Amino acid sequence: MYEQSISTLAQQLRNKDISSVELTNLFLKRITDLDPALNSFITVSSDIALAQAAQADALLQSGQGSSLTGIPIAHKDLFCTQGTLTTCGSKMLNNFIPPYESTVTSRIQQAGAVMLGKTNMDEFAMGSSNENSYYGAVKNPWNLETVPGGSSGGSAAAIAAGLAVAATGTDTGGSIRQPASFCGITGLKPTYGRVSRFGMIAYASSLDQAGPMAKSAEDCAHLMQAMSGFDEKDSTSSETPNDDYLSNINTPLTGLKIGLPKEYFGDGLDSNVADIIMAAVKEFEKLGATVKEVSLPNLQLSIPSYYVIAPSEASSNLSRFDGVRFGHRCDNPKDLLDMYMRSRSEGFGTEVQKRIMVGTYALSEGYYDAYYLKAQKIRRLIKQDFVNALNEVDVIMGPVAPTTAFGLGSKTSDPVAMYLEDIYTLSVNLAGIPAMSVPAGFANNMPVGLQIMGNYFAEAKLLNIAHQYQQHTDWHLQTPTMAKGA
Amino acid sequence: MSIDKEDVQKIAHLARLALAEEGVDQYQQSLSSILALVGEMQSVDTDGVEPLSNPLEMTQRLREDVVTEENRRKDFLANAPESEAGLFLVPKVID
After folding, report:
1. pTM score > 0.95 for this model?
2. Which CATH superfamily includes the segment(s) A6-255+472-485?
3. Among residues A104, A245, A317, A435, which one has the fewest Cβ atoms lying within 10 Å of its Cβ?
C-alpha cells in the first residue's frame, strides 16, 4: 500500500477500498516503526493528520475532492504551518509556532491532502548532506551509513522509505534534486517565481524555489497542480498563466531534442554515474529523441557565483533573527548588543554562522563591487549559456551529482569539498530555469538521478519527459530493503 | 584570499555573532578557504556585463497602498521571548 502512486491511491479512496483514516494510520505506524533509524521527521502531527483524514473521508463520501484528497504527505520544516512547530532545522526556531500558513502548504491543504508532519533538513536549508540539522543527521534508507543529501534530505528519505506518499521540498542550489538523486526518488525544482515563496523561511531570496518530491513524475505533477501559480502575497511570484501538468503527460517524445553539455561529463564525475546517465540517454533515443552535444562554458563559475550570492542574501535575510520578536533569546542579556550577539551565536549552527559571515564580508564596505556585483555579472553569463543552449535543444540532460550518496561524516571537515558537490545543480538556480531529478539506475548499490533541465516555465514538458521515461523503466519503483521491514 | 583572526572578529561583529575564542581559528580557516574559492571570479572578464539580480528580470510589482492585514497583535506576540503590555520587551536601551 505504501508503494502506491497518488493516482492509484486516489482511485482506491474513491472506490472505498480504503479510507483516508486507514491510509493515514498506516503511514503513521510506518513512521513510528521505521523513522527512529532514519530521523527524517522533526515533528509528526498525528492529531492534525487524523482530523484532516476524517475530513477528507467525508468529502470523498459526498463525491467531492481532488486527486490529493486524503493522500498523506509531509512538508519540509521550512514551510510555515499555522499552529504547528516550524524549526527550519535550527535551534533558533525550536519553539516557533507560526501564526500564519505558507501559500504552498495552504494550497495543498485546500486540495485535501493530509499532513503527516514536518521533515528534517539542513539548518536554514544550508547544506548538501542533511548533517547540518540541529535535530540530528538524516540517514539514507538505501544505506544507513550514508547521507540522504540535502537540504531536503528528510523529505527525500521519508518518501524513499515509504513514510509519506509525497512531500514538499525547496531548492536554492540543488536541495530538491540532489537528495532526490541520492534517495532514488523524483523531484522537480520549478522555474523561479512559479511557486509562491510566501511563508517559506528565506535562505537566498533570488534563488529559493519550492517544488514537489515524490516517487514518480506523475505524482509530482499532481502536487504541482495544487501548489503552483501566481500568488499576490509573493512579490516575485510570476503572473505567467499556470499550466495543466497532467494533460500532456502522455505526449510521445518523438523528435525531442536533447542536449548533453560536455562540461557535465568531465573530470570529477564518477564513471559509474556517467555510465548510468548515458544509458538513460540511450533509452530516450529509443523513445524517439535525438541527442547532440551542447556547451555551458561558464559552469565552473557557478560555484563561486553561488557561494557569494547565496550567503550574501542569507546574511541579509537572517538578520531578522535578533531575539526580539521570535526565536531563541539568550539568558540574562546585559544589553541590546549582547542580546543580539549571544542569541544569534547560540541559536545558529556553525554552517549557518559561516555563511552569514561570508555574506557579511561580501556585502561590507569596499568589497561589494568585487564580490556581490561581480557574482551577479557572472550570474548573467551563466543564464546566457542556458539561453543559448536551449535555443538549440528542447532540454538539457546530465547527472545531478558527481557521485552517489557519500558516507556520513566523510565531508564535514572541509566546507569547500562539500560545496564542490553542488557543481551540476547550482547553475540552474542562478539561471532560474526548472529542472528535475529522475531515478535512472544504481551505482555501487546506491541510486543515481538523471537531471533534466528545461526552458523557463517548461515544467509540464519536463514532467511529460520524465513520465514517458518512467513508463519504460522501473528505477523509480525500487524500494530499499529497510522499507520492507514494517 | 586569506583573512586573519582580527578580520574574523570584525566580520562576526558586523554580523552580530559572538564567536567563542576557540572557534575563531576554525572560522578563520574555513572563511579563508571559501574566499579563496569564490576569488576564482576575479579572473573573469565581465566588462560591459550587467549584473543579474532576478533571473526573470521582473520589475517590482506594486499594490495599492491600503490596509490588507488584520490586526493580530496577540498572535504575533505569542512567539516573543518576552512581551509586556502588548509590546516586545528588550533590555534597557536608554537610561
Report:
1. yes
2. Amidase signature (AS) domain (3.90.1300.10)
3. A317
- Which H, E and C letters describe A362-408, residue by residue? HHCCCCCHHHHHHHHHHHHHHHHHHHHHHHHCCEEEEECCCCCCCEC
Grid cell digits, residue A106: 495552504
CA-to-CA dists, residue A225 to A112, A241, A380, A460, A484, angstroms: 13, 13, 31, 10, 30
Asked if A76 is an active-site residue, the reply is yes
Among the listed residues A5, A40, A76, A139, the single catalytic one is A76
Do the beta carbons of residue A460 and residue A242 sit within 8 Å? no
Residues composing chain B: 95
At A274, which helix (H) or strand (E)? helix A271-286
Nearest-angstrom CA–CA distance, A425 and A267 = 16
| 3-state SS track over A303-363 | HHHHHHHHHHHHHHHHHHCCCCCCCCCCCCCCCHHHHHHHHHHHHCCHHHHHHHHHHHHHH
Q: What is the pLDDT of residues A323-353, one digit of tens each?
A: 999 999 999 999 999 999 999 999 999 999 9
Q: Show me where the domains of chain B are located.
A: 5-40
User: Is A29 assigned a catalytic role?
Assistant: no
The DSSP symbol for A266 reads: S
Q: Do A325 and B88 touch (CB under 8 A)?
A: yes
**Residue A189 CA: distances (Å) to CA of A265, A312, A428:** 22, 22, 9
Mutate to test the interface with B, among A198, A358, A430 (most CBs of B within 10 A): A358
Residues of B in contact with A380 (CB under 8 A): 49-52
* Cα distances (angstroms) measured from residue A110 to each of A62, A66, A101, A209, A324: 16, 9, 12, 20, 33
Chain centroid offset of residue A9 CA:
23
Determine which of A195, A345, A379 to mutate to test the interface with B (most B C-beta atoms within 10 Å).
A345
Q: Which of A303, A323, A373 sits opposite B81 (nearest CB)?
A: A323
Residue A185 has phi, psi (to 5 degrees) of: -120, 180
Q: Max Cα separation, chain B?
A: 58
Q: By the 8 A CB rule, do A383 and B52 touch?
A: yes
A419/B35 touch (CB, cutoff 8 Å), yes or no? no
